[in-house]
Design a protein that fits this description.
Layout: H1 2-46, H2 56-84, H3 89-110, H4 122-129, H5 134-154, H6 168-217, H7 227-235, E1 245-251, H8 254-261, H9 263-280, E2 285-290, E3 293-298, H10 303-317, E4 333-339, H11 346-364
Antiparallel strand pairs: 1-3, 1-4, 2-3
Helix pairs in contact: 1-2, 1-3, 1-6, 2-3, 3-4, 3-5, 4-5, 4-6, 5-6, 8-9, 9-10
Length: 366
């Protein structure tokens, strides 16, 4: 049960990560579109002021067509990887994070005359840390550092740019910017640490809550649902549940099992019978009603189909214990069935099934 609860919690986290992946992708596309619009706006603002030396045609090629083409190529590669690995969310996260670094690299390199644009690399770093993955954030940070250095030291896209290593001021400014990026990376790691601690505490709390809830609705001997759980289900029956088949089962000669073999043997019989119910009725709700009496609410079965299944349970339950051990008597399950009708009192549903069960027991027992 606990493993199933953990899987359910992990499934919810996966859904959240998948939604964040999609939003992360939209942000990457938005940054690419925003960079194109920024270039166009800068041209119309700066050109009349005489701040752009290049001709409109050269500007369009260098600052619009080439950067936009590179960004489209980057986004296409990311989308391709998402198609290749549709279920590998971690691979997709790496692709989108590194792809956003590449888009920021294109924008930074083209406008490297503005030193403050190195803050662009904080965007992919910040977004990657929301996955709570140290390795992903570290790889994104390494890519951002490399992109920052290459864009400032190796590539000269704008001739008006001042070379980093030409004087002490630009060199110190470059070094300080790298230290700031390193500090931002460390801050992201600290954020991931505390976010993971918070998530672990939340998961632990949720598991404890589920365990407490299971302790209230689970029978401790058989680990089937108990009568409290049955009453809760019956309380929520509605007109949509009309036609639901209810079965009540009771073990013949169970008192003889306890009296002859002892209560431990009786408990062992109940556990084995519960395993039989769980295996045979894995698609249905099974409850320990009281003592050696059990209830099954059949999901989507007709009365005829439920009757056949109960006959099988009665036959197989008689094989759990050797009849010779209790004076030749067969400890098998008697059963009775009833069908829920719209507006019926749930207690009447149980009483009708019990009445049939006791009638079968009367016919079977001497």
């Amino acid at each position: 049960m606990i493993n199933n609860d953990i899987q359910t919690i992990e499934s919810e986290y996966e859904k959240v990560n998948r939604r964040w992946l999609n939003l992360h992708m939209y942000i990457s596309v938005g940054v690419a579109i925003a960079s194109f619009m920024l270039e166009a706006i800068l041209f119309f603002i700066m050109n009349p002021m005489g701040l752009i030396e290049a001709s409109p045609a050269v500007y369009a090629v260098r600052y619009l067509l080439i950067p936009t083409g590179l960004n489209i190529l980057i986004l296409s590669l990311v989308l391709l990887l998402r198609r290749i690995y549709p279920k590998h969310l971690t691979m997709q996260a790496y692709a989108i994070s590194i792809g956003l670094v590449a888009i920021c690299f294109v924008l930074f390199t083209i406008h490297s005359i503005f030193p403050s644009l190195y803050f662009l690399f904080a965007i992919p770093l910040m977004l990657s840390c929301l996955y709570g993955n140290y390795m992903l954030t570290s790889v994104t940070a390494i890519c951002a550092f490399i992109a920052r250095i290459v864009g400032d030291v190796v590539i000269t896209w704008d001739s008006a740019r001042i070379e980093i290593l030409t004087n002490g001021y630009t060199t110190v400014n470059f070094a300080v910017s790298l230290l700031i990026m390193a500090g931002f990376y460390i801050a992201c790691l600290v954020l991931i640490y505390f976010e993971q601690e918070k998530n672990h505490a939340a998961v632990k709390k949720e598991i404890e809550r589920v365990q407490f809830r299971q302790g209230m609705i689970a029978d401790q001997l058989t680990m089937l649902y108990n009568r409290t759980a049955l009453n809760e289900v019956l309380t929520h029956l509605s007109d949509e549940d009309a036609g639901l088949v209810c079965a009540m089962l009771d073990i013949d000669y169970f008192k003889e099992v306890n009296d002859t073999l002892g209560h431990q043997a009786g408990d062992e019989y109940l556990r084995k019978f519960s395993d039989l119910l769980r295996t045979t009725c894995d698609q249905h709700l099974v409850f320990r009603y009281v003592g050696d009496e059990f209830c099954i609410l059949f999901n989507g079965l007709s009365l005829e189909e439920a009757t056949l299944l109960c006959k099988r349970l009665s036959r197989d339950s008689g094989k759990i214990l050797d009849p010779g051990s209790i004076g030749g008597r067969v400890a098998a399950a008697s059963y009775g069935l009833s069908v829920y009708e719209s507006g019926q009192n749930p207690e009447d549903l149980i009483k009708a099934a019990e009445a049939e069960m006791y009638e079968m027991k009367r016919r079977r027992l001497p």
